[in-house]
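Before relying on records like the one below, remember that each one covers exactly one chain. Contacts with other chains, cofactors or solvent are not represented anywhere in the record.
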Amino acid sequence: MQIRASDIISLMKKTQENYKQYALELIELLNKWDFLEVTKDGINDEYLDLVGPILSNLYKGVNKEELSEFISQKIKNSYGIKSEPYNLDTFITQVINWWQG
């Protein structure tokens, strides 16, 4: 079977469209979680730096524990939070269920 360049381009466009949709949905989940409690002040772009790395990990197929550890470390390093973010386990469960749904 020969693969045509047009088929590859079509698949890439679909993947990009899916990625954009996943990113929007993940931003919504992050804003609902709002571990910094900033969305109540009208700030809705605070967590954008987490979207790409989380989606990358999800595409790689990480499990719940790996994702939890990744997000915990990312938040501690990027936001200077010393303790576990509020409701991290609940958020991770929501993300995994959303991704698998």
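DSSP finds four helices and no strands in the chain.
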